[in-house]
Design goal:
signal, GerD_central, about 190 residues, elongated, 11 helices
């Protein structure tokens, strides 16, 4: 007997029993709503749940229920590349929480990809060619000399200087420099 048939057999038996008892009780036409209610009630009982568990525990059936990987891959690719799929992902990635979650889950893979690319001679050569491109240099220089960038740089420097962590680090560096200067002066005096 095929696994799909063994899966459907208990359900067909339930429908058959429910249908027969309904016809005998009413003596005629089978009412859909009453049959549906009866089947749902049967499935909610402990015996109904146990029957479903037994059917689902069948290894052969479970293997057939697992989706074929090529079908899943094709479906995902077609969905992602369709116009609706592209629009969906654009809207989804506008949600900052979603974007952050995706970024965190892919961080290790992204870092590994970058490391691999940096070790790839072909990639490095192309990157250097791009950076040496005179047109790119001009654009970069224009951006770096622009007022907007300078204002942004001022803001970043101000925020960095005002940061308590940075201030602590500066104090530590100044103390070390003062100690080094004092020890040098002591050496010179001796």
């Amino acid at each position: 007997m095929k696994p799909k048939m063994s899966f459907l057999l208990p359900f067909l038996a339930i429908f058959f029993i429910a249908g027969c008892s309904q016809e005998q009780a009413s003596g005629g036409q089978l009412d859909y709503e009453e049959t549906k209610k009866m089947v749902v009630d049967i499935l909610k009982t402990d015996d109904g749940k146990k029957a479903i568990q037994e059917v689902m525990s069948d290894e052969q059936l479970r293997q057939q229920l697992i989706m074929d990987q090529t079908i899943v891959t094709d479906t995902v690719q077609n969905t992602l590349t369709s116009d609706k799929g592209i629009e969906f992902w654009k809207k989804t990635f506008q949600d900052p929480q979603f974007a952050e979650t995706i970024a965190k889950t892919m961080q290790k893979e992204h870092e590994q990809l970058m490391k691999n690319l940096m070790n790839d001679p072909e990639y490095r050569t192309k990157l250097i060619e791009i950076m040496k491109d005179p047109e790119l240099e001009k654009e970069l220089t224009t951006v770096l000399k622009g007022n907007e960038y300078r204002e942004h740089l001022k803001q970043v420097v101000s925020e960095t200087i005002e940061s308590p962590l940075y201030q602590t680090k500066i104090q530590e560096l100044l103390l070390k420099a003062a100690e080094a200067k004092a020890s040098e002066e002591k050496k010179d005096e001796a």
